[in-house]
Amino acid sequence: MSVSPAVYSQSGAMIKLFKVKERQREIAESANGRAPVKKQTAGELRLHKDISELNLPKSCSILFPNGKDDLMNFEVVIRPDEGYYLGGTFNFSFQVNSIYPHEAPKVKCKTKVYHPNIDLEGNVCLNILREDWKPVLNINTIIYGLYHLFTQPNHEDPLNHEAAAVLRDNPKLFESNARDSMCLQCGKVAGELTDPGTEVKT
């Protein structure tokens, strides 16, 4: 069954609508004599709270490809409004475990990008997703962390070591390579072989 993605950004009204519709569904099912709604796990309850309290910059949005019945798997879209990646669009998948927030969500970048802190498999080097994760942190914190990776890429803690070295030694060349990678809708990003005849700056 095809479900239109539910999209949520900075608008508090849309978040409230989400909660109202959920309550209306529960009331309708009760009136129709259906089985009670499955009790949510602690992780689902906490995630629901995080989503209801999102306060994102205009350059970030969140969507639920599987609809509101699957909050544990969603996507975040980041469109940086400054820095090396200005004008780009970057999609991230989030998988949230049932023991959240005691374990950080699994986050992958679905967009190929030339970036010191994101490798070609989409793995993300962000401290709060690893050793610095704490249960007091939330989805809003992670999204802001991802956003800052694009406005302030960090060459000191790299996954893509080549990109990190270029950023450190030649920021203008790094900017050019980042721009080139955003223009490649297909193939691999700078630092790897692309389509035959395509020149890659190194």
UniProtKB/TrEMBL annotation:
UniProt KW keywords: ATP-binding, Nucleotide-binding, Transferase, Ubl conjugation pathway
Claim: Nucleotide-binding is one of the keywords in the record: yes
Keyword Transport: no
Highest taxon listed in the record's lineage: Eukaryota
Active site annotation, chain numbering: 125 (glycyl thioester intermediate)
InterPro entries to which the protein is assigned, alphabetical: Ub_conjugating_enzyme, UBC, UBQ-conjugating_AS, UBQ-conjugating_enzyme/RWD
CDD domains xref list: UBCc_UBE2F_UBE2M
Protein name per the record: UBC core domain-containing protein
